[in-house]
Amino acid sequence: MKQIKTVYDHIRSNNIKTIFLVLLFPLIFIALIFLFTCLVAPVEQAIQTTTQVAIPTFITCGIWLLISWAFGDSMMLNSAHAHEILDTDPKNREIFRAVENVAMAAGMPRPRVYIIDDDSMNAFATGRSPKDSSVALTRGIIKRLDRLELEGVIAHEMAHIGNRDIRLDMLLITGIGVTVFFADVILRMVIYGGNNNDDNKNSGTAILMMVWLAFTVFNFVISPLLRMAISRNREYVADATGAQITRNPKALASALRKITTDSRIECLDKIKSMSAVCIAYPGNPKNFVNSLMATHPPVEERIKRLESMA
Fold this sequence. Notes:
Layout: H1 7-38, H2 43-79, E1 82-85, H3 93-106, E2 112-116, E3 123-129, E4 132-138, H4 139-144, H5 147-162, H6 165-193, H7 199-246, H8 249-259, H9 299-309
Helix pairs in contact: 1-2, 1-7, 2-6, 3-5, 5-7, 5-8, 6-7, 7-8, 7-9, 8-9
């Protein structure tokens, strides 16, 4: 007899997968630099080069992460043209009540509530911690979902906050941004420093070229694949945790069916970094790649998993 997976099984399984995928980032980065450098230099020099490249890259990532940590949430809300609403406005009291109910059920502080003036259906969460978090909802999702479905969506976003997914996403965005910057710096060093007939300098240029190739493969092949895999895993976890909060996985499944029919937020079409934080892909459907590069799992699979938890 096949064992039925519970909400806790889904959460545990996907958390393990996420840890594994995150650990792959530095391991593959170091391995690529070492292997590419080995093609043009002895092993000892390849190890030295790998160390000289990896250490400053990781240090820069840490510094840039602190900057993103300080300003990342406001940048995300500004990108979506979201504006904060208060519970003193009678028109918004039902929204606040729904957010408060979910926050109480999750045992978390009520986040600030933002509205995106767009008739599509989408939502995202941001913030450095549960005590300093925000949930942004489009006008369309508020109008077109019923109360239980809307609570399911809010619970999904609260799950992202509670699971520290925003922190993880900032780390990934920052890390990829830093490696892209370093790749550009190394390429300029190759271009402007390679016009010399000295054998030692030519050898150094060859090593730099291999390091640049390693960065390029990491930035444009490995990183997107790993980041999309992590993003999909976190969506599954947020779905399962949201279902655990509301005790109503079918309501979230129903909401997802509706949301995916009209999830585009036009102001986010060209901001690819925002795709992973929304409950559904917010860009132009023509640009959505339904493959390994997709930021979200297939909605049919998400719905199937939610309905299996009911």
